[in-house]
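Reminder: ligand-aware prediction takes two inputs, not one.
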Amino acid sequence: MDRFFNFSAGPAILPLDVLRQVRDELLDWQGSGLSVMEMSHRGDAFLSIASKTEADLRALLDIPDDYKVLFLQGGASLQFSMLPLNLLGSKKSANYVVTGYWSKKAVIEASRFCTVNVAADTLSSGGKKAPDIESWKLDVNAAYVHYTANETIDGVEFHRIPETSLMPLVADMSSTLLSRPIDINKFGLIYAGAQKNLGPAGLTLVIIKEDLLGFVQEKVPILLNYQHLADNDSMANTPPTFSWYVAGLVLEWLKKNGGLNAIAEINQRKAEKLYKAIDGSSFYSNTVQADSRSWMNIPFMLAEPALEKLFLKQATEAGLLYLNGHRSVGGMRASLYNAMPEEGVDALIVFMKTFEKNHG
Ligand SMILES: *Cc1c(COP(=O)(O)O)cnc(C)c1O
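Here is what comes back for the chain with pyridoxal-5'-phosphate:
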């Protein structure tokens, strides 16, 4: 069996132990005589998978009882619309902080439903940093403030939660949730597409404080209504059962490996190693401000852009896959999610040094 190191930003690498368990259980889940794919979502077998997954998520993230956890479809991008539709209530505006590609997308979608106050924008100024909350210009009458905790494409991450008591804090955590412990109490709502750091594509997680339910706009499609989805335990219609199950196995794997404190330490070490290799060379560069560099997604440029194709070709031959940057920005990007073993980062660094020696 040839397993390559997958540096894709998403759908992304999954833990090998999890894939093995999926394989072993694929035809017959724990003596049920069925694959999880074939099970009714209302049957006892799947309901036990669903509730164990939620319990493990709550334990890992220490989610308080007054928060609901929703297992949805539609990706993080559908949340860009669901947020204003569900949270505005009688308010007319929402605050957004723009730090990269995904927060910009969130603004564009929210603008269809309300007045968006851009409270800070480091993307337009080319800043590549996570701006301190002290610099945010908040509209205090807005329904909420939204930020992207980790910009998957730009490699910009907030390493501190921007705390505010003025209004609910909403975070897109698609590419950073479960990479470290966080204090859920500081948030009104957190959402994340699963395919970065949690499981297969098709599942989207929403963690919402209960007192934010019930502000939904009239005529919002019922399946976009958080209250309705919460009332039906995320089973208002058929949920993405297989992705839910695999996410559950990933959470078990995380628990077995020491939980979020342990994984955070490993994630920090992996990222620091790669940044050190980049900073220590004149051939590679990363221009994100030092205190805002992502642990999960590390973009870098080659001094000679003409060599990018060759770099990617030789990396693939060396078993290092998907190191290309997002099509909107070019360059390179290494995604180092929880499931990326430290040996993968070591192999990448060795490859980069060799490539620089031969071509730099
Ligand atoms: C990938 C990503 C998205 C979009 O996710 P989809 O599930 O494809 O809609 C949104 N925000 C962030 C931060 C992402 O990394």
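The longest helix spans residues 259-279. The pocket of pyridoxal-5'-phosphate is lined by residues 10, 75-77, 102, 148, 152, 172, 174-175, 193, 196 (CB under 6 Å). We will return to this case in the review session.
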